[in-house]
Amino acid sequence: MTEGLGQAVHLSHELAGVLQRSRDDLAKDRGRAAQEAAAVLGTLYELAALTGQLELQLVRAEAPLVEGGNKRLHDLLRVLKNQMLEELRQRGIEVRDPLGRGHDEVAEWADVVHWRSGPQFTAEVVAQTIEPAVFHHGRDEHDGTGDDDKVVRRARVVMGCPEPEAP
């Protein structure tokens, strides 16, 4: 009778070891999956930034392309850019151009790289976008709250302001 008990104890230790190895393997797999997901998100953020750059360049190139007889090319590139932005939006990634927005409105998500003053500015506003901002809308995994609208890439802008008053 003690022989059967010894085998049962041995078997339970063996099963416990198998279970522990399975848990360890699962933890490693989860870690790898998390790293891969972070890498994919990083790539999507980079693609969003590049798509935002494309959008800025298309706006700047519209008049020269149309005047040069290439309106159809401009329209095709604009449609492709819009499709790219829509794919990103469906994955919770948004590109925002802060052009024309007030300093207070963009201070949390834009870096001012230069200031420009002139009579055309009645307040501190974004005069030029060098790089648009990229946001990710999703669940904040760190604090368990609902939707999180986080800046994953800050905009780079030139800020316009009124000319200083003469003393």
Walk me through the structure.
The termini are far apart. Strands 1-4-5 form a 3-stranded antiparallel β-sheet. Strands 2-6-3 form a 3-stranded mixed β-sheet. 54% of the residues lie in helices and 24% in strands. The protein is elongated. Helix 1 (2-67) packs antiparallel against helix 2. The protein has 167 residues and is α+β, with helices and mostly antiparallel strands. It has helices spanning 2-67, 71-90, 103-106, and strands spanning 93-96, 110-117, 125-131, 133-139, 147-153, 155-161.
Radius of gyration: 27 Å
The biggest sheet amounts to: 3 strands, antiparallel
Number of strands: 6
Instruction: Briefly note the structural class of the backbone.
Output: alpha+beta
The amount of beta strand, in percent, is 15-25%
Q: Which strand order do you get reading across the main beta sheet?
A: 1-4-5
Mean pLDDT metric:
88
Apparent shape:
elongated
Q: What is the helix content?
A: 40-55%
Number of helices: 3
SSE string: HHEHEEEEE
Distance between the termini: 105 Å
Poorly predicted spans: none
Give a quick rundown of the structure.
The protein is 54% helix and 24% strand. By secondary structure, it is an alpha+beta fold.
